Amino acid sequence: MAEAGLTRVILCPGAVELLDVLAGGARTLAELRRVVPRRALEPALRVLAAEGALRRSQAGTWDGRPGGGSVFALTATGRRLVDHLSDLDVWVTVYDDYFNGQPGPGSNRA
């Protein structure tokens, strides 16, 4: 995943929490609502889907509200993202880029 995508995921409220819970296996929409507040849930699901980290059991557009029977699971990309986020250097880079406006270690920006 490109660094911009990783930063987008980290900065999206609820996205990291969703990755954490989905790392334990597929979950229903109701189970995800217990982890992430409703107003943050749908945007976080969309960001993760846009990054290719998430799939759901029901076909359809990500622009509408997911059905109550939808089951969400990580893709292979999502599992790699969870592994990547467990690396402290990733968090240091995001912190440096976001809060200091400077590239951190391993940054692709010049």
The DSSP helix count reads 6
**Number of strand elements:** 3
The ordered H/E elements are HHEHHEEHH
Distance between the termini: 19 Å
Portion in strands: 5-15%
Shape: globular
The biggest sheet, with number of strands, parallel, antiparallel or mixed sense and barrel status, is: 3 strands, antiparallel
SS-based class: mainly alpha
Q: List low-pLDDT spans.
A: none
Tell me the radius of gyration: 14 Å
Widest sheet: strand ordering: 1-3-2
- Percent of residues in helices comes to 40-55%
Assembly of the depicted chains: single chain
Structural summary, described in words:
The protein is mostly helical. It has helices at 3-11, 15-22, 29-33, 38-50, 76-85, 88-100, and strands spanning 27-28, 54-56, 71-74. The chain has a three-stranded antiparallel sheet. The two termini are 19 Å apart.
Please give a handful of descriptors for the protein shown.
3 strands; 110 residues; globular; mainly alpha
List the helices and strands and how they pair.
Elements: H1 3-11, H2 15-22, E1 27-28, H3 29-33, H4 38-50, E2 54-56, E3 71-74, H5 76-85, H6 88-100
Antiparallel strand pairs: 1-3, 2-3
Give a brief outline of the structure:
The protein is 53% helix and 8% strand. It is built from six helices and three strands; from the N terminus they run H-H-E-H-H-E-E-H-H.
